[in-house]
Write a structure and sequence with these properties.
Elements (H helix, E strand, L loop, with lengths): L9 H15 L6 E4 L3 H8 L9 E4 L2 E4 L3 H12 L5 E4 L10 E4 L2 E4 L4 E3 L6 H9 L3 E3 L7 E2 L10 E5 L2 E4 L9 H17 L22 H4 L6 H7 L5 H15 L8 H9 L13 E3 L5 H15 L5 E2 L2 E6 L6 E6 L5 E6 L2 E4 L3 H7 L10 H4 L3 E12 L13 E4 L7 E3 L12 E9 L5 H10 L2 H8 L1 H7 L7 E14 L9 H7 L5 E3 L10 H16 L7
Parallel strand pairs: 1-22, 2-16, 3-4, 3-17, 4-13, 10-19, 17-23
Antiparallel strand pairs: 5-6, 7-12, 8-9, 10-11, 14-15, 15-16, 18-21, 18-22, 19-20, 20-21
Helix pairs in contact: 3-10, 3-17, 7-9
Length: about 550
């Protein structure tokens, strides 16, 4: 609105000129851009030659990769008293759960929260109890959680029509016909949480491996989530936007590509509760899920009494030998070097598109990359270190998670929201998430690799500038952009019955597989599940049951 423009005289003109001068002085923060794993990954893809190994090690088990799956496998082995293992870190400790730190502030470089685990996710509950995050009642419906880990209020808000509203599903100002559809969808999801198939299993469970295999329900995997919504008579534009946003946020792909089974699983599989938190609560920390990776590392080190189990380096080759798998690892450092690890069993705890490059022939395990490889979403995770906060409208307080309706990206999270203080901390980090789902994964990767830092910055700040205008840049003092070109597998139609993934899930020999890729999508519970399952196979134990 143009307020009192007719009063603009000499004095006000001078003030306006000064304001215009200072607006012109706003300078966007120069970004630091990181591409974790890209150099090593491209070297594997391009068939690079490696230096001759100069050192040899011997362990009963080698776990290749220190993401959630690899660390979960090592944590479970150590917890059960098995100590003869080594974890080859890979190019980035914690992988998609990694974090950064600047000026005393932690922030996520990947995943930033964990929903309350349901009873079916007993492996996650066991882990959280071991770390003291579940303080009591790990086996009960409503455990008691560490208050500091529960996301504080206000938890989430949506910028729509120039105003912030509570929650992410649009409700304010919509006609009753659309609101009725929203309520009908939410009621449908609530019923699906307890639905069982003809095999007696829950239709939608997490981990996915415990879900019903009833063909009548699995038929949902043959159509997209959007097709299911259309078929069921959901026409509300606001509901379609929300569900598309959820698919982009959790799966890195649009709802007109994601499997309908996966779209419903997003809502119906998680039914965790807490004795000391409301429904829909989540666990989060300033550094995101890196806290859980750090807790696993610390627990393993305490159990073994040393930290030598975590080895720097990246696995680049696995060879079959009479003594078991022989792993060649590239050692970090300014001078090229390599070492080998002779093992009886090796766990490939890296993405399958990497595993296929280091194994002699992954097709021997029933997985043909040409036919079975999942589509992989490209992501940017951008951390803006803030000095103070942009102005908020009265009565519209900053939330932990902040999303722009129709926004280009996926909104932003405030890392210091979890710090227990009466007043906001003077400095903070706004973490902006962006799945480049508006183009094909290949096109997105090509753009990310070729884009200038300035172009990446513009993309990273899209939702923040939409929320605050250019005034946002007055507070941004540093910017780190993490580019993950192959960030996660997306569960497109047919992923449930993918024969290659089905085959790898059952492998139980000298080489084992443990990664969220086996589930066809990337979340903590799935990665941890396959790590624990791999550990169980090494120990001769059956997988956890619901």
């Amino acid at each position: 609105m143009r307020r009192r423009s007719f009063l603009l005289g000499a004095a006000t003109a001078a003030a306006a000129g000064a304001a215009g001068y200072w607006r012109s002085r706003i300078v966007e923060t120069a970004p630091d851009v990181d591409y974790p794993g890209m150099q090593a990954g491209h070297a594997l893809r391009d068939g690079a030659s490696w230096p001759q190994p100069t050192e040899s090690r011997r362990h009963g088990v080698a776990i290749l990769g220190s993401g959630v799956a690899g660390l979960s496998c090592a944590w479970k082995l150590a917890r059960e008293g098995y100590t003869d293992f080594i974890v080859v870190q890979g190019p980035e400790f914690a992988g998609n759960a990694a974090a950064g730190r600047r000026g005393g502030l932690d922030y996520p470089r990947g995943a930033h929260y964990l929903p309350l685990p349901s009873l079916a996710s007993s492996h996650v509950r066991e882990m959280l109890a071991d770390f003291g995050i579940i303080e009591r009642g790990a086996g009960e419906v409503r455990p008691y959680y560490d208050e500091a880990a529960l996301a504080h209020s206000p938890q989430e808000r949506l910028l729509r029509g120039g105003r912030w509203e509570d929650g992410l599903l649009p409700m304010a100002g919509l006609p009753e016909t659309e609101l009725a559809q929203h309520r009908r969808f939410l009621a449908r999801v609530e019923r699906l949480r307890t639905e069982t198939g003809r095999d007696g299993r829950k239709v939608f469970s997490i981990p996915l491996a415990l879900s019903s295999r009833d063909p009548a329900w699995r038929a949902l995997d043959a159509i997209t989530f959007k097709q299911w919504l259309d078929r069921e008579g959901y026409s509300s534009a606001a509901l379609h936007w929300y569900l598309d946003y959820c698919c982009r946020d959790d799966y890195g792909a649009r709802y007109d590509a994601v499997s309908a089974w996966a779209g419903l699983h997003y809502f119906a599989s998680r039914d965790g509760h807490a004795a000391n938190a409301g429904e829909g609560a989540v666990l989060t920390w300033p550094g995101g899920l890196s806290v859980l990776a750090d807790r696993m590392r610390d627990a393993i080190t305490r159990k073994l009494g040393h930290d030598g189990w975590l080895a720097a380096g990246t696995a680049v080759r696995v060879q079959d030998t009479a003594a078991g798998p022989l792993v060649t690892c590239l050692a970090p450092g300014p001078a090229p070097g390599a070492y080998t690890v002779q093992t009886r069993r090796t766990v490939c705890a890296m993405p399958l598109f990497v595993a296929q490059r280091i194994l002699p022939d992954i097709r021997a395990y029933g997985y043909d990359p040409a036919a079975h490889a999942s589509s992989r979403a490209a992501w940017m995770v951008s951390n803006f270190v803030m000095d103070g906060y942009p102005a908020e409208a009265p009565g519209e307080p900053l939330s932990w998670d902040n999303v722009v309706y129709g926004g280009k990206a996926l909104g932003y999270v405030v890392s210091t929201h979890q710090l227990l203080r009466v007043a906001p901390s003077p400095r903070s980090v706004f973490t902006a998430y962006h799945a480049l789902s508006g183009q094909t994964p290949r096109a997105a990767r090509e753009w990310l690799a070729a884009a200038s830092p300035e172009a990446l910055r513009e993309e990273a700040a899209a939702d923040l500038v939409a929320a605050y205008g250019r005034e946002f840049w007055r507070h941004a003092r540093a910017l780190e952009i993490t580019v993950r070109g192959h960030a996660m597998a997306s569960p497109l139609c047919g992923y449930l019955s993918n024969p290659g993934l089905v085959a790898l899930r059952e492998v139980d020999g000298p080489v084992l597989f443990a990664h969220a890729d086996l589930s066809g999508y990337s979340v903590f519970e799935e990665a941890a599940w396959w790590g624990v399952v791999a550990a169980g196979r090494i120990l001769g134990q059956p997988p956890p049951q619901a």
